[in-house]
Design a protein that fits this description.
Layout (H helix, E strand, L loop, with lengths): L7 H9 L4 E5 L5 H10 L3 E5 L3 H8 L10 H9 L3 E4 L10 E4 L14 H13 L5 E4 L7 H11 L10 E4 L18 E5 L2 H12 L5 E4 L2 H32 L3 H8 L23 H10 L6 H27 L8 E5 L14 H11 L3 E5 L23 H5 L3 E4 L8 H7 L3 E3 L14 E3 L1
Parallel strand pairs: 1-2, 1-4, 2-3, 4-5, 5-6, 7-8, 9-10, 9-11, 11-12, 12-13
Antiparallel strand pairs: 6-7
């Protein structure tokens, strides 16, 4: 594909023969599993990242993502199937480039497109005829056409004529053992029929099921719908938790009763707030875009506000629990169990635990945390806790005025924790099956 003449048929043939080189830009929780999926399928993959430390770790056969073991990385690198790099000029070697970079919100809850547009600019500098470019980052409908396309075409090459452009939303769920990248159906939308054909051919080599749709916008909106669905239902159950708590009714038992219905109901569970890279963020992308069409996404925005407020509800429960033993938050020693946004992962993106720790500290508490998967915190876009996980021993548990269960990792021994903690606030119903010591537990 080094020549300037090319055809879609030629590109598809290279893909089907697994002679195409696949480039993945952004080696995080989305990009690295994607590298594994294509490498496992027999493709040569080049992984691009601006974080030199990450690239050095991968080159030496180490992994910074818990569910991708180091041995997997070592095997891929040694076999020559995967080459991590910070050298973006190597994008010219790739037949397909897949963008897997963050799409966060600004402090004003507006889309922050700097990573997507910056990546498109890097690609544009090395774009050559015959390449397939795919955006996977979750975003608002219209991003591929309105943000990525103009940047790629600024150098003179044209979509559909010189290169192909498509959108296929990532559907990763870190920590799941029942679904992996290759098992999850892949929705694909193309800027034109040729782009759709090539993108479907590419993903068809690495995943079991490809779902073509009519446009990039449908694929973009489909992912937003998936996350709005979860966001709204979680907000509903969080609000119901607050209402039922006032009524003296156990929301967890209510959910257990409701989910016995074999149709028309799907169980969602309350928590201390939303975390992860999608659900807390993506619905606001749609509400922002809707304003451009003079539409207010009231339902979506309300759900987002309810979920965003949940850590403050938990802080109230902490204050109540401490008050019951004659203490205030100020001056109390509090241990937060679990820093990750959900159990059994090492991912703290948008984790409500971070907000809880910051809010407790701002109220004068002395706060520590324990998370077996996150030994120390690292700087985030809007947070930098600068903390280390403490050992979860009987002696350590006994010295805290309150233990706050924020993440219900399955490795935690809840009987041991209840036995040695003085006072507990449980946001995950993790201690439900423990009878001894119930008097020291507050549900939040």
């Amino acid at each position: 594909m080094k020549n300037t003449t090319w055809s879609v048929t030629e590109l598809v043939q290279r893909i089907e023969a697994k002679k195409a080189v696949v480039g993945v830009i952004g080696l995080g929780y989305v990009g690295l599993p994607l590298v594994k999926a294509f490498s496992d399928s027999g493709f040569t993959t080049i992984g691009f990242d601006i974080d030199e430390a990450k690239v050095r770790m991968l080159e030496s056969g180490k992994s910074y993502i818990r569910h991708i073991p180091p041995q997997t990385i070592r095997d891929l690198v040694r076999a020559g199937h995967f080459a991590p790099t910070i050298d973006f000029s190597r994008m010219a070697q790739c037949d397909a480039l897949i963008i897997c970079v963050p799409t966060p919100l600004t402090v004003n809850r507006e889309p922050d497109m700097q990573y997507v547009s910056g990546t498109a600019e890097k690609i544009s500098a090395y774009l050559r005829p015959g390449q397939l470019i795919i955006l996977e980052s979750t975003t608002y409908p219209g991003t591929t056409r309105e943000v990525v396309l103009p940047v790629l075409e600024a150098g003179g090459l044209k979509s559909g004529k010189d290169f192909l452009l498509a959108y296929s939303p990532e559907r990763e769920d870190p920590g799941r053992k029942d679904f992996h990248t290759a098992d999850i159906p892949k929705v694909v939308g193309g800027m034109d029929a040729s782009a759709l054909k090539a993108a479907c051919a590419l993903y068809g080599q690495a995943v079991k099921t490809v779902v073509p749709v009519e446009s990039c916008e449908i694929a973009e909106a489909g992912k937003i719908l998936e996350n709005c669905y979860r966001c709204i239902n979680i907000a509903l159950i969080n609000e119901l938790k607050i209402i039922l708590d006032r009524m003296g009714i156990d929301v967890w038992k209510v959910i257990a009763a409701a989910k016995t219905k074999p149709f028309g109901f799907q169980a969602f569970y309350p928590g201390p707030g939303l975390g992860g890279h999608c659900i807390p963020i993506d619905p606001f992308y749609l509400s922002w875009k809707a304003k451009q069409y003079d539409v207010t996404a009231r339902f979506i925005e309300l759900a987002g506000e309810l979920n965003t407020a949940m850590p403050y509800h938990v802080i109230g429960k902490v204050a109540e629990a401490l008050n019951n033993v004659g203490r205030a938050i100020r001056g109390s020693r509090i241990l937060v169990l679990g820093l990750a946004y959900k159990k059994d992962v090492d991912d703290l993106r948008e984790s409500p635990s971070v907000v809880l720790i910051e809010q407790l500290k701002s109220r004068g508490a002395r706060v520590d945390y324990n998370d077996p998967f996150i030994p120390r915190t690292h700087p985030q876009r809007q947070h930098d806790l600068k903390m280390k996980s403490i050992a979860l021993t009987a002696k350590n548990l006994e010295k805290y005025d309150l233990v706050l269960i924020a993440t219900d990792h399955t490795v935690y021994d809840w009987k041991f924790i209840v036995q040695h903690a003085r006072c507990i606030v449980d946001t995950r119903n993790a201690t439900a099956g423990i009878r001894a010591g119930r008097g020291k537990i507050t549900r939040a």
